[in-house]
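Give me the fold.
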Amino acid sequence: GENFNMEQMISTVEDTSDERLNYAGCILNHQLYWENLSPYGGEISGDFRRAIERDFGSVSSFKLELLSRALRFSANGWIWLIMDYRQVLRIVTTPNNINPEMKASRDKGTPLLAIDLWDHAFIHNPLSDKKEYLKKILLIINWEEVSNRYHNAL
């Protein structure tokens, strides 16, 4: 059989129909998603807060833009906070299981935060909807972990 090296694959495969790329993205994206959640949430603080304020104006503007972009995204996929090659924080979306570190990604950068926008993330509760799901996710993001990713990306 063929050896499977996930890191090599995401940096070299451009064909988004490649099934291996889909599986690699599914694993990596969900791993990041779960690592960024905590039952206690937290606050955006320190250098990371200053970077958010520099690139989005304020923490509330950042959260509003994240929510707005996620609600406008109509496909299955992900919304990300990334640091691009200029060390600018950006909110981007990717379809399916594409990850911003993949060669196949339109918007490249280091993922700091991943939020699952696949229907399965919010349709299990008939009283829930995408907007409610997103509001609840924002309450349980482990901003300390996101901040650590930010510092590691510098």
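The mean pLDDT is 87.
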